Amino acid sequence: MGFCYLTGKEVIPCRYNRVGRFSEGLAAVDAEGKWGFIDKGGKW
Q1: Tell me: the pLDDT tens digits for 19-40?
Q2: pTM for this entry
Q3: Partners of 18 in the beta sheet?
């Protein structure tokens, strides 16, 4: 899973198994069994 704008333009490539919603600028993501947070630019 990844993230895109409502227009359909991809913002963060599909490379996560599971993702959460953004809250306070961060989203929880599962990358190959390891959970962490990314910002809206895709940085851990």
Answers
A1: 999 999 999 999 989 999 999 8
A2: 0.73
A3: 30
